[in-house]
Design brief:
The complex is a heterodimer of chains A (336) and B (404).
Chain A (H helix, E strand, L loop, with lengths): L2 E9 L24 H6 L2 H14 L9 E5 L5 H13 L7 H6 L4 H10 L4 E5 L5 H15 L4 E8 L3 H9 L13 E8 L8 E10 L4 H14 L9 E5 L10 H6 L7 E3 L1 H4 L5 H15 L18 E8 L3 E8 L8
Parallel strand pairs in A: 2-3, 2-4, 7-8, 7-9
Antiparallel strand pairs in A: 1-5, 1-6, 4-5, 6-10, 9-10
Chain B lengths: L4 E10 L2 E2 L1 H10 L5 E2 L12 E3 L5 H7 L10 H14 L12 E6 L5 H9 L16 H12 L5 E4 L5 H14 L5 E8 L3 H9 L20 E2 L1 E9 H7 L5 E10 L12 H14 L8 E3 L6 H15 L6 E2 L2 H4 L6 H15 L1 E2 L21 E2 L5 E7 L4 E8 L7
Parallel strand pairs in B: 4-8, 5-6, 5-7, 11-12, 11-15
Antiparallel strand pairs in B: 1-2, 1-9, 1-10, 3-4, 7-9, 10-16, 13-14, 15-16
Helix pairs in contact in B: 2-3, 3-5, 6-12, 9-10
GO molecular function, one term (chain B): 3-oxoacyl-[acyl-carrier-protein] synthase activity
Protein name (chain B): Beta-ketoacyl-[acyl-carrier-protein] synthase family protein
InterPro entries (chain B): Beta-ketoacyl_synthase, Ketoacyl_synth_C, Ketoacyl_synth_N, PKS_Beta-ketoAc_synthase_dom, Thiolase-like
């Protein structure tokens, strides 16, 4: 079972200087999403998700897919936060229905279905640091059920001042480690390679609160073994550490035990820390496999790029959510 | 070989009370949990009715065996109680080596704590900040910790079909052998956020809701939680649990029409019901009862009615909405109604649609309005639709109709 990625698109903070408090992705022109009257009602999070999804679909002649699966850790929190703040300030006297509807966590997958008239499977995962991992697992499950099907999948989370303030008040961000960040990424996937597959996702594993290092190490070894390889077969590690000692307490030692020559990119340095940062990591993995080199702005790599066939994404969120994603060249030979 | 999916346990809490027995008694007696608002602090308390769970957060915490409710959202207190009912029936850690997952669902998550702290900024200093308990992931993570589960967990949020989709995902993971056992369900607390949101959309009724009635004029919101334990056929051989139902079919489709209302032909619901029948290898005539989504909004009941007519094509179709009992519990509705559907199968009874007097003139089907015995009942369908065009339908069947 493999999930072939046929196309991808992303809105990321990669080529942009971080703002003082957080990484902000460069906004494209959202005007392509529809009439100004329509797009004005959409919150930025929706626009980010819809734009990147539509860009991904534009490679298809008919923009037809069998289903849509989206992930988000905090969804359209700008709308929810605004609705909530207004309720407090006017003591429930007035409420804006449009803002309420935008605050539905599944607004992106719902709007996408309407935009492209996709009447098939439609789901949204709202599961913290596992939101995107849940999406990948669902897509892999679909390939097991019927490998012919083609899905649009993706994830998005948005950072904005009120969210930052509340995270800071809660002691969740703004103290140590990488800056908070944001981004949206979409992928066109199928159980079949299609004519021009960019790469394939072989496996995804999520572990909640693994407690101790040896268990995490054992799970990683088993994970690689199930895909018929070991750590020496990995050509690039996309490492989701937070640069926060407390949170990296299991993941950093795990990475330190890997071969010293294994090139590694601490990807949250570039996209910032957010719930669905592993979607950025997968987007980055696709760029590397597709172009055979790292994007220019990625400067923190311990070894020069070599031929990359297999990429391991190893990430953690808040020191409790751990995940591994194995991405490889679509035409990789088992003995490579 | 593809695995068959059985239900071996369930737990529920809603405005009807705590547990399967309290739920069954209320359904059999035609007793509604929808009443004037008593527990939620809101300026609208005199103008709306709701299916609240009749307890404060502190009372819920004590019932769940916790020292205090501090730092825990009402949504999670409700979830924990529903899960505790399951734990009182079976040991979910027995038979080591089984891969056990947790799939929960919610729309409001820890919204109640956010409201509490933002409405009372001075009084809540020193409490854990609401951002720690706000998102769906933090709710499910806390439940994973309470249950001691470390492998796969997921949180689905597809508006009012959320927990139906949690059941569907759990069934799919078992069928493909990716998990051996999975606890599926969801919870939503009644909050000012949802009350004011639905109110602003003019979707709330001020009197007891009247699903499938010509005069229906909106929703009564509710709150609650329910979970099911699903086991695959190979797991059942190890646990020797007696299955109470089988998940025989399901469909997840999208209406692709409008953010908050269904297409005139009820296409999303139609396709979901058709997909569920196809998956279950059943004919429409095999379905003994449909537990409808039936929110009592003018749009939902008309379009769901049209969709049911298209699928079943028979005026004697037996269906009802049980939302007049529980209120519309949003993310929890799918699994609360799954529990009700399974109780219906177990007791071979159809629970009546309350508050009904006048048929919808545009439809030729009418809901069941009295407690009706249904001896030999085999298959029940449960519908859940929601914002964003999401449409899900699940078929629960007698476990004995299938050889293990």
């Amino acid at each position: 079972m493999s999930l072939f990625i046929q196309h991808t698109s992303g809105i990321t903070p990669l080529n942009r200087q971080p703002e003082p408090l957080y990484h902000r992705a460069a906004d494209p022109s959202y005007a392509v999403l529809g009439e100004p009257a329509q797009t004005r009602r959409m919150c930025r999070h929706s626009k980010m998700g819809l734009y990147t999804a539509m860009e991904c679909l534009n490679t298809l002649e008919h923009r037809e897919v069998d289903g849509i699966i989206w992930g988000t850790g905090i969804a359209s929190f700008e709308s929810a936060g605004r609705f909530l703040k207004e309720l407090v300030s006017n003591n429930e006297a007035l409420a804006n229905p449009a803002v309420f509807v935008q605050s539905s966590h599944n607004t992106i997958s719902g709007q996408l279905a309407q935009l492209i008239q996709c009447k098939g499977y439609n789901s949204t995962y709202y599961n913290g640091g596992f939101s995107f991992e849940n999406v990948l697992m669902d897509a892999l499950l679909h390939t097991m059920e019927n490998e012919e099907q083609q899905f649009l999948i993706g994830a998005s989370d948005e950072m904005f001042p009120l969210y930052y303030d509340w995270l800071k008040d809660g002691g969740i961000a703004g103290h140590t480690g990488y800056l908070p960040g944001e981004g949206a990424a979409a992928f066109l996937v199928s159980g079949k390679p299609g004519s021009t597959p960019l790469c394939k996702v072989d496996q995804v594993l999520q572990l909640y609160n693994p407690g101790d290092g040896p268990w995490l190490q054992e799970e990683l070894n088993n994970f690689l073994e199930r895909s018929g390889c070991d750590i020496n077969d990995i050509d690039l590690l996309l490492l989701g550490t937070s640069a926060d000692q407390e949170k990296d307490t299991l993941l950093q030692p795990l990475a330190d035990r890997m071969p010293a020559a294994l090139p590694r990119i601490p990807f949250k340095k570039y996209c910032g820390e957010y719930y669905t940062a592993t979607a950025f990591a997968l987007w980055l993995a696709v760029q590397v496999l597709q172009n055979g080199q790292y994007p220019e702005s990625i400067t923190e790599v311990n070894n020069p790029p070599q031929e990359v066939k297999r990429i391991l994404v190893a990430s953690q969120w808040q020191g409790r959510y751990y995940s591994f994603i194995l991405v490889s060249d679509p035409f990789i030979h088992p003995n490579d | 070989m593809k695995q068959t999916v059985f239900v071996t346990g369930m737990g529920i809490i809603s405005s009807l009370g705590y547990g399967r027995t309290a739920t069954l008694e209320a359904l059999q007696e035609g007793r509604s949990g929808v009443e004037p608002v008593q527990y939620l602090e809101t300026r609208h308390h005199q103008h709306v009715l709701a299916g609240e769970v009749k307890a404060t957060n502190d009372e819920l915490a004590i019932l769940a065996g916790l020292r205090s409710a501090e730092g825990i959202s009402r949504t999670n207190l409700l979830s924990l109680l529903a899960l505790r009912e399951i734990l009182s029936q079976q040991d979910i850690h027995a038979h080591s080596g089984l891969r056990t997952g947790l799939i929960s669902s919610t729309t409001v998550g820890g919204m109640d704590r956010a409201e509490h702290q933002l409405f009372h900024p001075g009084e809540t200093n020193g409490e854990t900040h609401f951002m720690h308990t706000y998102d769906g992931g933090s709710c499910t993570a806390w439940l994973s910790e309470q249950l001691g589960l470390r492998h796969y967990n997921a949180t689905i949020s597809t508006a009012c079909s959320s927990s139906a989709n949690a059941i569907i995902l759990g069934a799919r993971l078992l069928e493909q052998g990716l998990l051996d056992r999975v606890i599926v369900g969801g919870a939503d607390a009644y909050t000012r956020f949802t009350l004011n949101g639905f109110n602003s959309l003019q979707l709330l009724d001020t009197v007891p809701c009247r699903p499938f009635d010509e005069q229906r004029s909106g929703i009564n919101l509710g709150e609650g939680a329910a979970y099911l334990v699903l086991e695959s056929s190979s797991t059942l051989n190890k646990t020797k649990h007696v299955p109470i139902a089988r998940v025989s079919g399901y469909g997840n489709t999208n209406d692709a029409y409008h953010a908050t209302s269904s297409s005139p032909d009820g296409n999303g619901g139609y396709m979901a019901m058709q997909a569920a029948l196809e998956k279950a290898l059943l004919q429409p005539s095999d379905i003994d009862y449909v537990n409808a989504h039936g929110t009592a909004t003018p749009n939902n009941d008309l379009t769901e009615g049209v969709a049911m007519q298209r699928v079943f094509n028979r005026p004697d179709l037996r269906f009802s909405s049980t939302k007049p009992y529980t209120g519309h519990t949003l993310a929890a509705a799918g699994v609360i109604e799954a529990v009700i559907s399974i109780l219906s199968l177990q007791h071979e009874q159809i629970f009546p649609n309350l508050n009904y007097s006048q048929p919808i003139s545009a439809l030729n089907i009418k809901p069941v309005t009295t407690l009706t015995a249904a001896p030999g009942m085999q298959h029940v369908m449960s519908n859940s639709f929601g914002f964003g065009g999401v449409s899900s339908s699940i078929i629960f069947s007698q476990p004995k109709t299938h050889s293990i």
